[in-house]
Amino acid sequence: MSVVALKKAPPPVKQAPAQVVPLPVAARSGQWLQKSVAWVVSSVLPPLVVLLVLLAIWQIAFSGPTAGLPTPTKVWAESSELILDPFFVYGSQDIGLGWRVLTSLERVAYGFGLAAIAGVLMGAVIGQSALMMRGFDPIFQVLRTVPPLAWLPISLAAFMDSRPSAIFVIFITAIWPIIINTAAGVRAIPQDYRNVAAVLRLNQVEFFWKIMVPSAAPYIFSGLRIGVGLSWLAIVAAEMLTGGVGIGFFIWDAWNSSRLTDIIVALIYIGVTGFVLDRMVGWLGAVISRGTAT
């Protein structure tokens, strides 16, 4: 009988543990530079080109001697101080546009903050019932179409002071889209989520924070973005009539003094501030809803 000799298996080769080799500093800086250039080309360059084209058209269109509006070069020549130094203080009414914008933003913070709290709570309650939705929706749709300045005489008669009147105008203007969007978001919560809440026996407060807010966040923040834009519109319009040191009264005072270049600079401040407010609310919504609210 033949015997087959078994060969011993070779011992396993020990492998060195894998090592993570960091990229050289030059390579990492090169990647960062490429991303920065790509972001500038895709996000910054297009609006910058459009802005330059619009400024060129504006300059050419109103360069004639009979033009009614000043050109961009004239705006810079006559009102550059308002652009370069927005926080100067020469007197109680002679202050920079930066301080005026901050004064207006303070009023917006009060009015819009109250509207956000009341609007979300009311929308959450109304959205729970289809009967309440059918009852309140026509009223909300009528009230939301009332212009901000139409509320000003009512608020002045009620509060007899310009400051709370302006805050009330902001509140009453901003609250309707917040209520409507919040109620729509609550109605759109899937029934499965409600069933889970019933199984877990969540109370109303727990249901609001754990189910309602995350699910309805896209709707809620859509209403908040509309509301903050309306708030900024309302305060500028209200300040034109109530006075003070806000940006709205500055525009009205500049018009009475025939300072068109100052008005144009103030409009730029208003537009940029409104853009920043909208982006801030949108960013907050994206953080809370994890990217589902835009």
Automatic annotation (TrEMBL):
GO MF: nitrate transmembrane transporter activity
Highest taxon listed in the record's lineage: Bacteria
The residues that cross the membrane are 37-61, 108-127, 166-186, 232-252, 264-288
Sorted alphabetically, the keyword list is:
Cell inner membrane, Cell membrane, Ion transport, Membrane, Transmembrane, Transmembrane helix, Transport
Biological process GO terms, please? alkanesulfonate transmembrane transport; monoatomic ion transport
Annotated InterPro entries: MetI-like (IPR000515), MetI-like_sf (IPR035906), NtrB (IPR005889)
Could you tell me where this protein is found in the cell? Cell inner membrane; Cell membrane
SUPFAM superfamilies in the cross-refs? MetI-like
Per UniProt, what is the membrane topology?
Multi-pass membrane protein
Q: Which residues form the ABC transmembrane type-1 domain?
A: 101-281
Gene Ontology cellular component terms for the protein in this record? plasma membrane
Q: Which PANTHER family match?
A: ALKANE SULFONATE ABC TRANSPORTER-RELATED, MEMBRANE SUBUNIT, NITRATE IMPORT PERMEASE PROTEIN NRTB
Homology family = Belongs to the binding-protein-dependent transport system permease family.
What does it do? Probably part of an ABC transporter complex. Probably responsible for the translocation of the substrate across the membrane.
Q: What is the protein named?
A: Nitrate ABC transporter, permease protein
| Organism in which the protein naturally occurs | Pseudotabrizicola alkalilacus
